[in-house]
Amino acid sequence: MDFALTEEQQMIQDAARDFAQSEIAPVAAEFDLSGEFPAATIRATGELGFMGVEVPEAYGGSGLDSICYALVMMEIAAADCAHSTIVSVNNSLFGVPFLEFGTEEQKQTYLRPVASGEVNGAYALTEPQSGSDAQSMRTRAVASADGSSYTISGTKSWITSGPVAKYMVVFAQTTNAAGEDVGISAFVIDSQRDGFKTGKTEPKLGIRASATCEIELSDYVCPAECRIGDEGRGFKIAMTVLDSGRIGVAAQAVGVAQAAYEAAVEYSRDRKAFGCAIGSFQAIQGKIADMKMRLDAARLLVLKAAWTKEQTKKSGGRCSTEASVAKLFASEAAMFITNQALQIHGGMGYSKELPLERYFRDAKITEIYEGTSEIQRMVIGRNETGLR
User: Fold this and answer.
1) Phi–psi pair at 201, nearest 5 degrees
2) CA dihedral of 325, 328, 329, 335, whole degrees rounded to 10
3) Where does residue 261 rank: exposed (0-12), middle (13-18), buried (19+ CB within 10 A)?
4) Contact 331, 249 (CB under 8 A)
5) Which of 287, 298, 340, 368 is the most exposed place for a label (fewest CB within 10 A)?
6) Active site amino acids
7) Do the Cβ atoms of 252 and 302 come closer than 8 Å?
8) 12 — pLDDT class (breaks 50, 70, 90)
9) pLDDT digits (tens, 9 = 90+) for 207-255
């Protein structure tokens, strides 16, 4: 068993770290304070190929493997969690539906501009009355009598990049041309067409620079060629996409935890109390040890999940358990590590003069979106026991 990265993976990690630390980290606090979407740095991220890491070059991406994607996410999240959220959505939640279920025309028309960083994508599954219970969504798509289009109406909530996305993957309960309810289907919509509008922007605790809003569809006419996959297969598409998305969130959690851990270690060496560095105190060393243990374990679980995902590209199947295990452990580790790092910094950790409080606020979302920790435990338990 070889734990070393390949030469290509190491090169991608180094490139992502250099870019994130030189271009993103210096502006992270500014965008966190303003809540504005960081258009310039997101555009630069796309120009480096980080918006379509696993997307083949034929569709505007970098054509790299799942481990490279996880490494990119870790490095960008270590600089700023909000930027990594936008990167995650474009790569996984928006990109995977097309890679796994899209037609050649859809890949060229919708995937290419997002993977190349030309425009932003979004993923619209959650609704005001359906979060974890996605199957209870109320948004509806009704096929025309000749089956040439669908009329979609409904409200989606907590849509990352909603205010700025050109294209969105939307899920809706579907009535076919024969008037039969066939379940949930997936569609790609254009935010510049009639029938689409954005609702309120969410005032979030963390990842404040990732624009998040409600979207409203009112008699939006969607051509049949914009349906992704077969009618009634939308829930399967959504769950398959979340396997990939959860690995991205887990990598994000590792990134923000790494940043907090490094800050805590450095501060413990520099801060003096009672005539010596506080890092020499047994209580602080115990905290550092607990943080290091969780950080390394989380990173290994993320890389294992990414490796497993790469194998499924060749063998078929899913990486549901591995993705949920990685997300559950890494997100809870990130909350523990950011909390302990803040505690080590004492009063300075509570101040906006240092990024510790931002790390702490940003880490919390990793326990919530793309399936809460409670949902991850349910997924793991069901997969392991075979019982529902």
Assistant:
1) -90, 135
2) 170
3) buried
4) yes
5) 368
6) 370
7) no
8) very high
9) 999 999 999 999 999 999 999 999 999 999 999 999 999 999 999 999 9
How many whole angstroms separate alpha carbon 162 and alpha carbon 207?
Answer: 14
pLDDT of 316? 87
Q: How many CA atoms lie within 13 A of 385 on its CB side?
A: 8
pLDDT at residue 131, rounded to an integer: 85
pLDDT at 16: 98
DSSP per-residue codes, 97-139: HHHHH--HHHIIIIIHHHHTTSS-EEEE--BTTBSS-GGG---
Which residue's entry shows tokens 């803040």? 342
How do beta strands 121-124 and 227-228 pair? unpaired
Give 121's strand partners: 167
Does the reported pTM lie above 0.70? yes
Rounded to an integer, what distance in angstroms lies between the CA atom of residue 134 and that of residue 353? 40
SS3 assignment, position 334: helix
Site of tokens 């769950």: 239
Question: Where do we find the tokens 């076919």?
Answer: 176
What is residue 374's predicted lDDT score, i.e. its pLDDT? 97
Instruction: Catalogue all structural domains in the chain, each as residue range(s) with its CATH number.
Output: 7-120 (1.10.540.10), 122-233 (2.40.110.10), 235-385 (1.20.140.10)
